[in-house]
Amino acid sequence: MASVLIPNCLADVVLLVGVNHLTGLNPASTEMGSSVKVSLEQEFEAHVLTVISATDMVSFFPFIQRVKKYPPQPANKSWTVSSDERESSAETINKRPMMVKSLRIHRSPVDNQKVFTRHLSMYHIADGATPVPLPKLPICDEVIKSIPTFCFPDGLKIFQQKPDNVTHCFVLTDMSGRRSFAACLTFYRPFFVLEDTEGNIYVEASSKQAMNTSSNGKGGGKDKGKQNVDSMKDKGKQNGDSIYYLPHCFVIISKYPYYTTLKECLSSLLTYTERDPEEMTTFLMEYSNILTHTVVPPAGNLAVRINLYQLPVTLVPSLHADRPVIDLPLHLAFQCFGIDEFLKVLSCILLEERIVFLSSNYSLLTVVMETMLTLILPLKWRFTYSTILPSIALGYLESPGTFMYGVHSKHKHQVRQVEGLVLVDIDQGTIEINADSDTESDPEIIPLPREITEGFRRKWSQLKAQFELQDTKRPFCYNMEELRESTQHRIWKQNRVIAHAGLEFMVTLFRDVVQSLNLKHHLFDSEEFLKQKNDDPFYKRLFKTDMFKVFLEERMTEKTDYFSEFLLKTKGFSSRPVAGMGRRHSSAQSISSIQEVPVEKRVIGTFDMPDLAEITEYIKKTEEKLRRELTEANKSDDKSSLLYILSLLCVAKGDKMAAIEHLIKVAEINYRILPTEVLFSLYSEMTDTEKVAMKKKTGHKLLEDAVQSYERQERHTREHGIIRMDPIPMPDKDLSDTEFERILTEKKISHDFQIIEVLFQNLKDPETHLVPKDIFKYLVDFWVENQVKCSQVKIDEGRLADDEVILKVSELIKTDFGLGRMCLTDKRLFFQTDVTNHFKEIAKLREIERLERSEHAGFLSRVPTLRIHKKKNDKDKDSVFTVYLKDDRNWWCMVIQEMFSGRVMAAAMKDVMMVQLAIQNALLIDAVIASGQETLALLNTKIEKVAEKLSVFSHMVDQGRHILPGDTRDALQTKLDPNILEKKRQTVQALLYTCGDEQTSPRLWCGLSDGKIKIYDAIFWNLEKELDQTKPHCMCLKVVGGTHVWAGSSGIFIFDVRVFSCNKTLMDHPDLISSIVPYDHGKYVYTASLDGTIIKWEVQRLSHAQAVIKHEQFNGLRGLHMYHDRMICHKWSTIFITELNGNILHSLRVSPETIADKSSEVDGVSVISNGQIWAGGRKHGLVHIWDITTGELLYVLDTDESPGRKSDGIASIAEIDKKVWIGTKSGDIRIFSAIDRKFIKKLSAHEDCVRVLCDVNDRYIISGGGSADGRVCIWSASVNTTVTDSGNFVAKVD
């Protein structure tokens, strides 16, 4: 039977390790020579006896042989196989002479070097033998070599009394750093051991009759086994031999950390360990065949269950694709330590100390060490790591570098001799550091910041679960299967609680780090961060670790994973942003204000794999069952898991095209669970013809992107990207415009590319067209100096707002308040008296009426002063404040005027982002003037000119641009600019408002013409996320089911509303998506593409709900609308009214078909609630109105009859509250009654066409402008509305 390799199965290999009558007893040490006696204290060399993979079985004794009849045939005879049959079924690889057989035993002398060496027998080539390569195994030779050492970490010893069977787990790491996870069952079998007169040791196996238990393996096994051992002892006395128990180990090695599951599988083997060796081996073949052909389920909520000889084994998948499965009792680690010691251990791991864990229980070492690494995810320990360090390898503790080892506590004294090690004693629950001989004081462990650990401490009692205490109220359970299942579920539930707490801890630890990243320039300013953290020693050390640098690289790429999603979930309602410059009055978001997120609940389904007899039939039956389950699957996530398994079976069969089809569907439903390694291997093996065939399949680009991403990741593993954490260096040469822009944005001096361009043009040398490095250095130095000066201002708590920024501080000056210093913030001017630093407010910026430059006549000269006029108020006795600024008067006046004007413009335009730009401008003006007073005459001569050009908002106010028409001023609620950080302005092409809940704030989604989607918190208008999956075009956005946003681009990208992740992509459309329309309360969604294809989707299953609609007449389809049981499809020239199945009922045109110029084209088509179609002219201001039912033209509305200039065409139309809002290409919005079509009012706030209008819960309209404007306006549907200070939309109550 041909062997079949199914990728991603539970077991890579199953091994039998130990000694027997074929290997003999080889002393582990040769120092004592060949005269060594058999001793219970002596250590012997262990051997790999058998290795079994999915495709091959290799035995190494008495010679290396590949078993031809593996995988086993369907069971049609008993497990017992004769020696002749076994030999005939084996292919000799390195043939050795067989030992002379007796009727009863095989004898194997230890020191016969022609037969055995001190190395693994698999690497020995017999004299005269022709080397034949071993079959390719899933694990490398070096790992196989090391297996015996980990199976017997204290050395292999023999016993006269049979010890208890034990299990333990360990981790193996190959040269590439890839880890494998192993579970080991140690059991003991009796053998005759004797010595001859020359000191050679012989091991003799019992006869089959002596070893055999009951023939059926059922009742009486223990009594029968005892009788057989007694029989062996009697025979031993007659022959002068001694009975010893020799250890054996069953080992399962897997790519997946299913520790508990593997332990269960091994435990089921105990029944067969006392059987005849050949019978046991035959059973092991069938057992291994099952484990090596059991597919591990992908991340999600669908488990795989197999029946392992009456033992149901369930493989529960990981919840997240980028997080390993948790299959250990994590709560045990919490029972071993107190909270302080536990946090110290975490600190040492995070700081990459040299750590040794000690315990008298090898199994507990793996549990505790793996638990610790689980808690620090997504950080990954990349240094030397071994949960068990064998006794013979203790010398590695003195090796340089970072490592983490698990060592038996009996070696504690020896471990303590190594300087600088962190010793974690699991049995004692303590942690200490071995002192260095050259240091006098005892070393101390750097603690985690107290505020970071508060949440973890609060949950400590919940994490430290004691199941026995819970069991006191439960009755005893006598059903073993029920008890096992109950225990499993309790551990799984507790593991979720612990993993959740660990993730919450890591998010708290790195929240401020992530928010401080400069993603555009791949920069993390660690120096600035440490200043904010008061040079915390933990962060200082953490930033130097390898784990942190890898973490930074992942965050710099804006990796979407469980960490980034949890970060967003815990953010809750965000606070108002600060400018990121000047002196911040308050620190970042407090830990206590972070949103609590409940532990995720899981409802896990199960797929039962059929029983494995013959592999081809097994794959066939599994495929049939998978296809049946797919037709019945109601959840798309379950469907993706089933398709995942089906694709792996197709890979195993060699059906590449079928595998590709299934993988495309997997990528569409859940991109994250794609088996990228399998896909890359499959893609690499494809011929050019097969690749051409693949590219013809819809959705192939998803797989190509996955392959390219995998290749980039592999390259990135070898060649790490550069993350800059040091202070940004100053240039050593004159600066070009690109370098000038880069440094200003990196240092957060300015993000306004227009301002940066103005500054560059005015500072550059007219001959070289470069900014001189000296001038630039002065500019930056004075900007930084001002930051330091502002940061040194001491203010009593509560005087300034939490988000208020100090921008400028004067020298010691005379004022109406006396001698002191004047300070400017983004909200007010205030005064601090000299010496006492007493705080007095001069004026809030919104209270300033005007600034007056004046002079005070002194005794000897006239002193320049600045008079600040406040708006008159009955409470104010004096509305004028005078400051004697002398030579700095004009300087201060320009800075205050720009900040004041920015506030005026922001209030008038309802644009909170203008305040941030005004802060940047004010600080830049200050730095330019300061540097101009010190630098070369070149800058001195035009300093005032440069400063005036930077005073953008001052010029706007002078031009009266803050004065809006009355209707516009009353209706406009908020304005924001999605292009604020873009060099080239883009059209706002799609808008969507998503409602918030008790855990998240409402959000505004803006789709730009370059394909980016920018997501804003709709309370304070912070930019929360920028998505680029929809490049190069984002055509439309729509909420589906309240939990997901569907974005139309080259495909349909489905985003999670809460965490913005895109795991599902629908690529069934061959062209750009033009419309997405939910139908029947979101149960279905209709989507349309430019080529005229219309698809009806069933949302829950993400499958087609009816046949695809495709008409040649629909080619060029620009939009789709639904009205009851009618579809309205429109392109530039024609509007079609159809039935839901696509049958055309009416074709509507503005002019006869014979006329085909742009004057007859329509745009901004909308269906309003009274059953009418409103369609605007693409190149004129006419709106044609048709009846949907009859297709009759009801009215032609001329929007240009309203006051104002011509519209130049209609771009968008939307209805709200019986009013129709019409967005024109001239940039204004014209509102008409939907009932009598009378003009109501006109709104003007865009400088380019109103490209899109979005209705928000029938209360607000959001408009987006063309590329010349690129802004978003939020309008009230009624004039009688206002906006609160927080930014919420609240209607006035009469």
From TrEMBL:
Region span, Disordered: 211-233
One MF annotation (Gene Ontology) recorded for this entry: guanyl-nucleotide exchange factor activity
GO terms, biological process: regulation of Rab protein signal transduction
Transmembrane feature ranges: none
Cellular compartments per GO CC: cytoplasmic vesicle
Assigned keywords, A-Z: Coiled coil, WD repeat
WD repeats mapped onto the chain: 1066-1107
PANTHER family assigned: DENN DOMAIN-CONTAINING PROTEIN 3 (PTHR12296:SF21), DENN DOMAIN-CONTAINING PROTEIN 4 (PTHR12296)
Name the UniProt record assigns to this protein: UDENN domain-containing protein
